[in-house]
What we know:
Blueprint: H1 2-10, H2 22-28, E1 35-39, H3 45-57, E2 62-66, H4 68-78, H5 86-96, E3 107-110, E4 128-134, H6 136-143, H7 150-160, E5 165-169, H8 176-187, E6 191-192, H9 206-221, H10 234-245
Parallel strand pairs: 1-2, 1-4, 2-3, 4-5, 5-6
Helix pairs in contact: 3-9, 6-7, 6-8
Amino acid sequence: MEVLWKASFGSAAKKPTVGRNILQAMINNKIDLPLTVGISGASGNIYGLRLLQFLLENNYKINLVVSESALKVALHENNLLLSSNPQTQKEQVLSYLSLSLSNDDLLTVWPHDDIAASISSGSYKTSGMVIIPASMGTVASIACGISRNLITRAADVCLKEKRKLILVPREMPVSSIHLENMLKLSNLGVIIAPACPGFYHNPVQTFDLIDFVVGKVLDLLGFEHNIFKRWQSQSKQLTSKTSTNL
């Protein structure tokens, strides 16, 4: 997975493609508050890393929490060694993403057990939270109002403050208990966005599928982007091809 990341997103030749005038789009959408990103201990933390890369490259302020289990998953799936020390972890994440921030305040990393962090309080305003990927243990805790770590605590804050909360559940299959927990959260206004990529954009490489999932999350957040090819009706595609051949 580390080789995949470096080949897909880590080199200068493959910088992510973004929408035009992204900062103006943020202003238009009133997205002017920091976003909380939680990476829990499920398979697929590459989705969270890719989301971070896009947001930070576009100068968006992020509060990041990586769970204790996610630290182990990052090492196994991405060969990414992450320290439990926030400052060290921040440096490691930025190095992995090949990013150098123009403003150091854009990314704040919180320890997973720091329940006194800013994001643990509803008085600290955010634009919402994305948990990507979301383990079923994390989903269950949120559904039951149990705050075992900073990720579930911050999610609980989003619920009580009526802020946007997006969960990207881990890979299938899921049990009836998992489905009931997600249904309960969906009924409470939580957006459930499984990491299930479409194929109508004709993906060629694995990172095309990653970008599709991350792009859909960006859509839900209200961000302009073009990191995946959007659907066009067959008639439009045919017209486009015909015009090209004239």
